Amino acid sequence: SQDSGDAPDPLANALREWESTQTAMGPRHESTLAALLVLAAARRSAGDSVGALRDAREVLDSRRAVLGAEHPDTLAASWLVTAWRHQRGETGTVAELGELLPIMTRVLGAEHPDTLWARHTLALATEIGEDPARRMVHWVQLCGQETRVFGVRHELTLSALYAAALARRDLGDNFGASSDALVVYTYRRRLLGEHHPDTLSARLARVTWRGEAVGVTGETLNDFDELIVELQNALGHDDPTTLVARYTRATWTPESANEIERISEWEVLAEDPQRGDGEGNPLAVDGREKLDEARAQWRYALDDTREIAFDVLVDLESQNLGVDLSPN
Which class for 279: exposed (0-12), middle (13-18), buried (19 or more C-beta within 10 A)? Predict the structure, then answer.
């Protein structure tokens, strides 16, 4: 039995609620299907994406058979199943979302919560390579709609604001982007917690974009050092966000820094991304180039040091032998 002092288990609670409703109402009753969809969401939150998709598909099939394909409850399950399949990397899901969205807009309305979720998901899936100005306008509009429907502290609204900040940065407005990232970070910290991956990503964007906008200072580097430690503790050394932070910090290391330390850091940054994505990882490729540059600078500095040491040695030996090395 569960200790009364333990935190409740959302998955166990959802499972009990579904089983109880199914016993009372039957497996195809809408209350049972609604409880099964809650159970699917709980499974997904617990990391069981396969079980979540199985339960959600069962809900969708039942609602299509009983309510029809364009019933609001059917559409809610339909976009959810498609979105979860897309997140699992299944092919063809972007086209399916594109076909589903006009139906949802017509049946549910442009600012219905399910329609906004579907629009948001489709926008994230199709924005790669799109013109930053168009992305900026689209995300600002969507952020305004989501603010009206969900409020400013909702995860979807904050995601739209962050996407708008990314577009703003791509347009060259690093200071404006950093200001937007600060808003996202502040609200995510309250909503998700200080060490949630999304919170840390927004914090990294804030520090990076502000450094690009106003210049890298000692305070900027200190902020990066503190953030990298938190990223490594929360996400791991090889997490993409951690690697981006370490890479940015290394590129901002002053030229006056110790050459051996610079070489050591670039050696690690050239190797770590390969473990996750192979040698073709952009950070690994650029890291190897930076490593070669750091090694070349070290060799150049070493040659200069050797020449100076040789000149000093000759001068000392000449003084010991009483030889006058002056031009005259």
Answer: exposed
Locate 318 and state its tokens.
Answer: 């000449």
Alpha helices in 171-258 (DSSP H): 174-192, 197-214, 218-234, 240-251
Write the DSSP string, 107-167.
Answer: HH-TTSHHHHHHHHHHHHHH-TT--HHHHHHHHHHHHHHHHHHH-TTSHHHHHHHHHHHHH
pLDDT tens-place string over residues 196-241: 999 999 999 999 999 999 998 889 989 988 999 999 999 998 888 9
Please tell me whether residue 96 adopts helix, strand or coil conformation: helix
pLDDT, residue 113, reads 95
Residue 298 has pLDDT above 50, yes or no: no
Amino acid at residue number 57: R
Question: Is 103 or 291 the better-scoring residue by pLDDT?
Answer: 103
CA distance 286 to 259: 18
Which one-letter DSSP state was computed for residue 272?
H
Q: Which CA distances in Å does 116 have to 36, 154, 181, 296, 326?
A: 23, 13, 22, 53, 84
Dihedrals phi, psi of 254, to nearest 5 degrees: -60, 150
Give the integer Cα–Cα distance in Å for 55 and 62: 11
Crossing angle, helix 155-170 and helix 132-150, to 10 degrees? 160
Q: What average pLDDT does the chain have?
A: 83
Identify the three-state secondary structure at position 3: coil
Provide the pLDDT confidence category of residue 302 given band limits of 50, 70 and 90: very low
CA distance 223 to 218: 9
Question: Taking every pair of C-alpha atoms in the chain, what is the biggest distance, in angstroms?
Answer: 112
Read off the pLDDT of residues 151-171 as tens digits, 9 standing for 90 and up: 999 999 999 999 999 999 999
302: which residues sit within 8 A by CB, 6+ positions away? Answer: none
Supply the DSSP symbol for 236.
Answer: -
